[in-house]
Amino acid sequence: MDKLDPELREQLKQPRRQVNVIVRLRSGAGDRSADFQALDCEIRRRFWLTRSYSITCTASKALKLSQLDWVDRVELDRTVKALDSKPAQPTRR
């Protein structure tokens, strides 16, 4: 299985470009905050339930992360949109 999101792979062609990625860890990888900091990656958020980190780094570092044995997948940190784009209607009391 490819560890890199196909859309991210396209962005990695520019090694100095800053990218926001989600790094999913393999089961049993533990806390890797120190490893991300050693690679000079900015940790924006940690998602405990999914064993993932939201980080900002250069494209070349994202590629390097994808090659580490404790990394399961690296994908773009995209904007999430709700399926229903209509604003919620206020209820009257």
Q: Would you give an account of this structure?
A:
There is one protein chain. This protein is of the alpha+beta class and 93 residues long. It has a single domain (6-76), classed as Alpha-Beta Plaits (2-Layer Sandwich). The protein is 22% helix and 29% strand. It is built from 3 helices and 4 strands. The chain has helices spanning 6-11, 33-38, 59-66; strands at 18-25, 42-47, 52-58, 71-76. A 4-stranded antiparallel beta sheet has the order 2-3-1-4. The N and C termini lie far apart (53 Å).
**Ends distance:** 53 Å
Count of domains: 1
**What is the CA-based Rg, rounded?**
16 Å
The best one-word shape is globular
Biggest sheet details: 4 strands, antiparallel
How does CATH name the architecture? 2-Layer Sandwich
Count all strands and give the number.
4
Q: Helix- and strand-based class?
A: alpha+beta
CATH topology name, in short, is Alpha-Beta Plaits
CATH superfamily: Peptidase S8 propeptide/proteinase inhibitor I9
Order of helices and strands: HEHEEHE
Topology:
Layout: H1 6-11, E1 18-25, H2 33-38, E2 42-47, E3 52-58, H3 59-66, E4 71-76
Antiparallel strand pairs: 1-3, 1-4, 2-3
